[in-house]
Amino acid sequence: MKLIIADDNAKIRKLIRILVRKSFEQIYECLDGDEVVPCFKENKPDWVFLDIQMGRMDGFSAAKSLISQFPTARIVIISDFDDQDLRKVSEEIGVKYYLNKDELFRINTIIKQFN
What is the CATH number of the domain that holds 106? Predict the structure, then answer.
């Protein structure tokens, strides 16, 4: 399987990479939501993990763009914020799951649940 990790924090990208290394053969990293759509078009990943707060384009905007162009895209929002309103926005956009960064240890279980 293939994965895109979009987060402006290199330490978080590295942690996610370590956690999912057995589940994904190829992992692509993006620093910003702006980079996600071209990366998706080029690499056709099975999953996309998006942080909400990033520079030029936030995770919600990137998710909306991806889902409008690729309705079957499987996206997980990964956020510092455990907030019901943000979870609701994610659900309305069509994101598969909203995960708090404090719960990253659950990421492989979530992938298996939606595969």
Answer: 3.40.50.2300
Q: Which domain holds residue 49?
A: 2-114
pTM: 0.93
Q: What whole-number distance in Å separates Cα of residue 96 and Cα of residue 35?
A: 20
Helix count and strand count (H, E) for the chain: 5, 5
Closest-CA residue to 2 (of 88, 104, 113, 111): 111
Averaged pLDDT for residues 36-63: 94
- pLDDT tens-digit map of 35-46: 999 999 999 999
Altogether, the residues listed in the chain come to a count of 115
Q: Vertex 11, ends 15 and 3: CA angle to 5°?
A: 50
How many beta carbons lie within 10 A of that of residue 26, not counting itself? 11
Three-state secondary-structure class, residue 30 = strand
